[in-house]
Design a protein that fits this description.
heterodimer; A: mainly alpha; B: mainly alpha; MetI-like fold; globular; cell membrane (chain B); MetI-like (chain B)
């Protein structure tokens, strides 16, 4: 263990020794570092910083020919619209609803699955369960949507199953055009795709718990449930809180691929991201779409900051 | 010591059953579409396909690959994976390595500059407008450059580099190696595990992404496989075109009044083409993927 000295530990000494003005070497070394950082800096500047002032589009009647600086300024007109136009208001409500449901369903799922997987003995079965449950994570959302279309097809297996259960004269259903099934389907799909992958961090957290704690608890007469209650859960807490903060921050409006993929002519469920796409990019109402995006960004940012703040207060864990 | 109560035995049996069912749910949709893709399209219409093809055929794939646009999209996808992954990994590794070097003036400020976009970004519309203005939209580069730098990946590579002892670089310098040689001949070979992780993650991202095409690309010559799949799923036009071309080229025949092909079969074949490469490769590389996640979860 002692032979592993990290780079950070090692440098403390040489820096002191080289304190005499060795500016040429320092500059030469810095020059090399700057050169290595340059591509990252330039890419960040162009693709992350340059779009930032573009948010001003939300406060003007943007005209693509006049450009950002010559389009007429209209203040909060479009921001007000976000809360006044029924369709936009609906999109915000839908996004909130979906986000809350996603948190309730998709946050605890991997924790539960990790606990169940952890009960398996190490061996072929455990490894197969892990490998196969990670698989959907590597499919693109659009492929997952494709699988769903196929599965729920009129002559697909779900309808086959329905006929098997209800008798051959039962009617085959068009599940994909049922408005009532849309949100449950989104939830099922997002759990299906990510639950297995989500177990990795929690399984790692469980594995890192000192086994002697369980031994001690057993000697003290704790049963399995009590062992989990007092050892496993506290051991997973840090990971769980960090994952929750990340989920909260990333959740609001990030379901574009799934919602857009699953939408069809029979479904009326606009969310913020699909509205930004359809009204902005498809129809060219840049100012309205930018205003919707601006409100979304504000809410997402507030959510993440407050999640971080609450987590810090409650459990002294934070990501910044 | 290993005494197990009866209720625990019941729990174990229930657990194994539950997880088996779960695994079935995880793989069944894929196996079903795999069967569908290799099954005779007209036969599939009777339903009842489970996980093996009832009337085996390769026609669905033949039809898909007879289309020039599909072939072109496949090449674009492959080119994107190759170029995007190489550039991204090099950019991120170089940056991470630079951050491990000492005595670099302004290091902290540069890091903050790179962190800020994680919390603030312009959003889709401003990004869309800037890309149009810079003429990156509708070029191959819109796939590559905007995602070449990732702070998250850079930080993971950096924490890996910190585990390599400093003395290795120092002894190479005493032997007369310059900065460049030390980086490429000492640290890069030692970082291969983390470079493999990043390569895989980035390659999967590039292969799977379709929204970049949706947002910023209208040029048909730049469509990717995943985007074609999206069109097949959501736009009747694409399916109609595929079927029409297959009829014209005599790949599919009209039997009993209807063409020997269905939109469902085309869809199944396309899903398989877009997801099979990853499904085949990933069990062998799984440990690299998993390693990346646990590395990333370790908070510095």
């Amino acid at each position: 263990m002692n032979s592993v000295t990290t780079r950070a530990e090692n440098v403390a000494r040489p820096v002191k020794l080289a304190a005499k003005p060795n500016w040429r070497r320092k500059l030469k070394k810095s020059y090399f570092a700057y050169l290595l950082m340059l591509p990252s800096i330039v890419l960040t500047l162009i693709f992350s910083y340059l779009p930032m002032p573009g948010i001003l589009v939300a406060f003007q009647d943007h005209n693509i020919f006049a450009g950002l600086w010559n389009s007429p300024w209209v203040g909060f007109k479009h921001i007000r619209e976000v809360f006044e136009v029924p369709m936009l208001r609906q999109a915000i409500l839908n996004t909130l609803l979906l986000s809350v449901l996603m948190i309730i369903v998709s946050f605890p799922a991997p924790i539960l699955l990790a606990l169940l997987m952890n009960e398996l003995k190490n061996g072929l079965f455990k490894r197969s369960v892990q490998t196969l449950s990670y698989m959907p994570h590597f499919l693109s959302w659009i492929a997952v949507v494709g699988l769903t279309y196929s599965l729920l097809d009129v002559d697909g297996p779900i309808n086959d199953l329905k006929l098997l259960l209800l008798g051959a004269d039962a009617e085959r259903s068009m599940f994909l055009s049922h408005q009532a099934l849309f949100v449950p389907m989104l939830l099922i799909l997002s759990v299906w795709k990510e639950v297995g992958w989500g177990t990795i961090v929690f399984l790692a957290a469980i594995t890192s718990i000192d086994p002697s704690l369980y031994e001690a608890a057993k000697i003290d007469g704790a049963n399995r449930f009590q062992q989990h209650r007092h050892i496993t859960f506290p051991g997973m807490k840090t990971t769980a809180v960090i994952m929750l903060i990340f989920t909260l921050g990333a959740l609001f409006g990030s379901n574009f691929e799934l919602v857009y993929g699953m939408q069809n002519a029979f479904i009326d469920f606009p969310v913020i991201s699909t509205v930004v796409f359809s009204s902005g990019i498809q129809q060219g109402n840049y100012s309205t779409a930018a205003a919707v995006g601006f409100v979304e960004g504000l809410v997402a940012f507030t959510l993440m900051i407050s999640a971080n703040f609450i987590a810090k207060k409650v459990s002294r864990i934070s990501i910044f | 010591m290993n005494y197990e109560s009866a209720s625990y035995k019941v729990f174990k049996a229930a657990n194994i059953t539950f997880l088996s069912v779960l695994v079935f749910i995880m793989v069944f949709p894929f196996l079903n579409v795999l069967a569908l893709a290799f099954n005779d399209p007209l036969d599939s219409q009777f339903g009842g396909i489970t996980i093996y093809p009832r009337v085996f055929t390769l026609d669905n794939f033949k039809l898909l690959f007879a289309n020039d646009e599909v072939i072109h999209a496949l090449w674009i996808s492959l080119a994107r994976v190759a170029a995007g992954t190489t550039i991204a990994v090099l950019v991120q590794f170089a940056c991470a390595y630079a951050f491990t070097l000492k005595e670099v003036a302004g290091r902290g400020a540069i890091l903050i500059f790179l962190i800020i976009p994680m919390y603030f970004n312009g959003g889709l519309i401003p990004t869309y407008l800037i890309y149009s203005e810079l003429h990156v939209s509708n070029t191959f580069w819109v796939y590559i450059l905007p995602v070449s730098f990732s702070l998250y990946n850079m930080v993971i590579i950096r924490s890996y580099l910190y585990t390599i002892p400093d003395s290795l670089g120092e002894s190479a310098r005493i032997d007369g190696a310059n900065d460049w040689t030390i980086m490429t001949r000492v640290y890069m070979p030692l970082s291969m595990p983390i470079i493999a992780v990043m390569t895989l993650w980035t390659a999967v991202y590039h292969w799977n992404d379709w929204t970049t095409t949706l947002y910023y690309v209208t040029d048909h010559k730049l469509y990717t496989m995943q985007y074609i799949l999206m069109q097949i799923l959501k736009e009747g036009e694409r399916v109609a075109k595929l079927m029409e071309e297959a009829l014209m080229k005599n790949i599919t025949v009209i039997s009993s009044g209807q063409p020997h092909i269905t939109p469902q079969a085309i869809r199944a074949a396309n899903i398989i083409v877009t997801s099979l490469p990853i499904i085949i490769v990933y069990p062998f590389l799984q440990r690299f993927f998993v390693k990346g996640v646990t590395l990333g979860a370790v908070k510095e």
